[in-house]
């Protein structure tokens, strides 16, 4: 990233709350931000994607697979993701796309957001009900460039919250199917517009619109505009 562009980012952050600075970039600058995996998320820091998030995903995936008692081959068969690819992800040696992670999450019966939860390092200490902005996991899809931030604290809750910044003109298609648990989802657009295909129905969501769905059918997210979109995803899991 050039010094000129860095100066531009800090100029923006000086005039606006940092949680909104990302939205003040023009389309060219937004692409530059995404290419450097740099996103403003907090009032006093710049959060960078790094190896920590891949290690987090690796440990979380192993933990979920072990909890099922599944081998790599079993998860590969259920998810249609190759054994070698899963092995690379679990060793933190691969940068999986959102589509691949969703296939794994579906096979494991959890939401995509669950794969970004921080594993508990100390079993003696109860997970915290508080998540600071600095501790919220930030991840960039290497295929579409969309950026997601897990908002929810480590303590267990049936509700999960995720914030997403979706680049203009991009599309992500999840071949979602039935899970062991029923997962309800709502998408609330905070800025811009999104087009969502849920099953065979297409919805256009403008700023302020909210759409509810169950994660039991294919879902396509698309930003049909020339401007970035920002939305909140709320998920709630219930047992069958």
Provide the descriptors you would attach to this structure in a database record.
240 residues, four-stranded antiparallel beta sheet, 12 strands
Describe the structure.
The chain is an alpha+beta fold and 240 residues long. It contains seven helices and twelve strands. The chain has helices at residues 3-15, 18-21, 27-35, 51-68, 72-79, 83-90, 98-108; strands at 38-40, 46-48, 138-140, 147-150, 159-166, 171-174, 181-191, 194-198, 201-205, 210-214, 219-222, 229-239. A six-stranded antiparallel beta sheet has the order 3-4-5-12-7-10, with no helix packed on it. The protein has a four-stranded antiparallel beta sheet with strand order 6-11-8-9. Helix 5 packs across helix 7. The protein is globular. Residues 1-22 and 27-49 have low confidence and may be disordered.
């Amino acid at each position: 990233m050039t010094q000129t562009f860095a100066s531009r980012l800090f100029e923006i952050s000086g005039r606006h709350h940092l949680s909104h600075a990302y939205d003040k970039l023009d389309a060219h600058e937004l692409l530059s931000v995404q290419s450097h995996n740099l996103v403003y998320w907090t009032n006093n820091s710049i959060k960078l994607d790094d190896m920590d998030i891949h290690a987090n995903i690796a440990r979380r995936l192993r933990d979920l697979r072990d909890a099922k008692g599944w081998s790599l081959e079993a998860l590969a068969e259920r998810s249609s993701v190759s054994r070698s690819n899963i092995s690379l992800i679990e060793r933190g040696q691969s940068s999986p796309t959102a589509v691949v992670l969703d296939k794994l999450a579906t096979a494991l019966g959890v939401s995509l957001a669950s794969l970004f939860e921080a594993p508990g390092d100390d079993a003696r200490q109860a997970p915290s009900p508080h998540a600071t902005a600095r501790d919220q996991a930030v991840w960039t899809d290497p295929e579409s460039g969309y950026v997601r931030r897990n908002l929810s604290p480590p303590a267990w809750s049936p509700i999960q919250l995720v914030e997403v910044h979706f680049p203009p003109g991009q599309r992500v298609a999840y071949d979602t199917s039935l899970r062991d648990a029923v997962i309800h989802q709502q998408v609330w657009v905070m800025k811009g517009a999104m087009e969502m295909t849920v099953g065979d129905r297409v919805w256009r969501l403008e700023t302020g619109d909210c759409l509810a769905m169950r994660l039991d059918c294919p879902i396509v997210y698309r930003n049909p505009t020339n401007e970035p979109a920002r939305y909140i995803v709320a998920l709630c899991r219930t047992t069958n």
